[in-house]
Amino acid sequence: MTTLQNVVSELATGRLRIVDLTAPLSEQTPVLQLPEPFANTATFQMETISAFDAAGPAWAWSNITLGEHTGTHLDAPIHWITGKDGKAVHQIEPERLIGPAVVIDLSAEAAANPDVLLEPEHFEAWEAQHGPLPHNCWVLLRTGWSERNTDAQRFLNADENGPHTPGPSVACARWMAEHPAVSGFGVETVGIDAGAAGGFEPGFPMHHYLLGNDRYGLTSLINLDQLPASGAVLVVAPLPIVGGTGSPARVYALVESA
């Protein structure tokens, strides 16, 4: 039996299962809200073209309007000024979009403090238990934040001082961007940076360092609580938008059943 035949067999028997990490996309999907004078992305909208009626008696279809960075989506390097000469979505090699999942769990800390930061020390603890980060890995930050994603106010969690959501520190952002094993970073929140990251130096360090170093971001993930800390394989499937700074994506993981 070939390797691929073995994968199909393992899926059929349930020894290998698929965990969907993609949030459903609808007009209620929360999107990032920038303060004035900055422009904001479009929210998801669907317009019926026909639905088994006079406009199309035997078929149904719709037009959709949305921003590149809506819902569960991928950030490409050209999304940020430090990566502006890098890759657009359609230029990202497919092999960079499939790799081992490294899950770091800060859900208890985020429940106690929504501004909690991921630090290099968390990786040291992960490696002490699971070994070195595997090649071409995707680091996934589990915070429990996806529980909020049907309520835009709780999901964005902003007050007069700005948003309060977990994410990496400046030191951690640089550490991940420079680590040769890391291909990307994914979160349950609306953006790959912490809510307070606009006040960091540099501002929005995950965008600054990660995208500037040919790494990629994923946001608004769900079901990270169904993944082991190590051993799963992540599959990221964005639309290959020519010149795209990002793209909504279907993201899932292959997990061995216990």
What does this structure look like?
With 258 residues, the chain is α/β, with parallel strands linked by helices. The protein has one domain (3-256): Putative cyclase (Glucose Oxidase, domain 1, 3-Layer(bba) Sandwich), CATH 3.50.30.50. It contains six helices and 14 strands. The protein has helices at residues 3-13, 107-112, 120-130, 152-156, 170-178, 205-210, and strands at residues 16-20, 45-53, 56-65, 73-75, 98-105, 117-118, 137-142, 158-159, 162-163, 167-168, 182-187, 216-219, 233-238, 246-256. The strands form four sheets. It has a seven-stranded mixed barrel with strand order 4-12-11-7-5-13-14. A two-stranded antiparallel sheet has the order 2-3. The radius of gyration is 19 Å and the shape is globular. Keywords: Plasmid. GO terms for molecular function: arylformamidase activity. It comes from Deinococcus psychrotolerans.
How would you summarize what this structure contains?
The protein is 19% helix and 29% strand.
Write the layout of secondary structure elements.
Blueprint: H1 3-13, E1 16-20, E2 45-53, E3 56-65, E4 73-75, E5 98-105, H2 107-112, E6 117-118, H3 120-130, E7 137-142, H4 152-156, E8 158-159, E9 162-163, E10 167-168, H5 170-178, E11 182-187, H6 205-210, E12 216-219, E13 233-238, E14 246-256
Parallel strand pairs: 5-7, 6-10, 7-11, 11-12
Antiparallel strand pairs: 1-14, 2-3, 4-12, 4-14, 5-13, 8-9, 13-14
